[in-house]
Design goal:
This protein has 7 helices and 15 strands. Helix content is 34%, strand content 25%. It has an 8-stranded mixed beta sheet. The chain has a 5-stranded mixed beta sheet with strand order 12-11-13-15-14, sandwiched between helices.
Length: 276
């Protein structure tokens, strides 16, 4: 088997993500269900909750990869890892539980997200929803799927009718700036959604459930798999650092159907997105 075959990597990513999704639910039943303070600590702020679920789920992913793909590098939200893999080395980008606040509060909109990259190019990705069991996945050049059904991004070309997703930072000062930006653009779009899980927001763009999405400050593991899934579904995707001249700011992630992407970028630029 070709070690860089996107279809084979997608299959492995889906299998590990499904196992990890089951573990995430089991840990929540055991630990988070009673909101046990002893099993929670914090990262960047008091609202950025790290649970036993995050740690156990990432450990499981790393154990499985050590068995199945021992030569690969791993970058994970909880344990860090390979920010600069060797040239040509396969790297797995792991968000063990994306949407941690939803997870700890009993909301069903969270996921396990695994992206697979080589030399900065994403080859495969899987995003699994533990509660519903839905599986979103893609292999570069082979399209994107939801439970094996092909996905296609929205063909809408009218910004004033578009449903746009976004996210807000844990840092309060940045969140206030993001809310102000949202206020400036809200009157120019059809409606807005804030669901609290970037990987699933990007998957929602892939499915056409929302017409576009933007957020500032996402980490690599937040968008690695979801960005590929949206792109393989035909969306135009701007990753952080990929468009410094577009006026959206270096930390912006933007994804939208192909008929809407330019208009959404223009709207964000005109509303001062570069200042976030």
């Amino acid at each position: 088997m070709d070690d860089e075959d996107p279809v084979a990597l997608e299959k492995i990513a889906v299998g590990i993500a499904q196992e990890t999704a089951a573990l995430a639910l089991a840990v929540r039943d055991r630990v988070v269900g009673d909101r046990s303070v002893a099993d929670m600590d914090t990262k960047s702020s008091a609202t950025d909750v790290v649970t036993a679920g995050d740690r156990e789920c990432e450990a499981h992913v790393r154990e499985r990869l050590a068995t199945l793909r021992p030569a690969d590098a791993v970058l994970g939200e909880e344990e860090g890892g390979a920010p600069d893999p060797a040239p040509g080395q396969v790297r797995w980008v792991v968000d063990p539980i994306d949407g941690t606040v939803n997870y700890t509060h009993g909301l069903p909109w969270f996921s396990v997200s695994l992206g697979v990259e080589v030399d900065g190019r994403t080859l495969a990705g899987a995003v699994v929803e533990p509660v519903s069991g839905r599986v979103w996945s893609a292999a570069a050049g082979h399209g994107a799927r939801l439970d094996d059904r092909p996905l296609r991004a929205s063909a809408l070309d009218r910004l004033e009718l578009a449903v746009i997703g976004t996210g807000l930072a844990y840092d309060r000062a940045r969140r206030e700036r993001q809310a102000a930006l949202l206020g400036r653009i809200a009157g120019s779009v059809g409606d807005v959604r804030r669901q609290g899980c970037a990987s699933l927001d990007l998957c929602s763009v892939a499915a056409g459930w929302i017409d576009g999405f933007y957020e500032h400050g996402l980490k690599h593991w937040d968008w690695s798999a979801g960005a590929l899934i949206a792109e393989e579904a035909g969306a135009v995707v701007r990753r952080p650092g990929s468009g410094p001249g577009d006026g959206c700011g270096p930390e912006a992630t933007v994804a939208a159907g192909p008929q809407l992407a330019a208009a959404l970028t223009d709207l964000l630029r005109g509303a001062g997105a570069a200042q976030l």
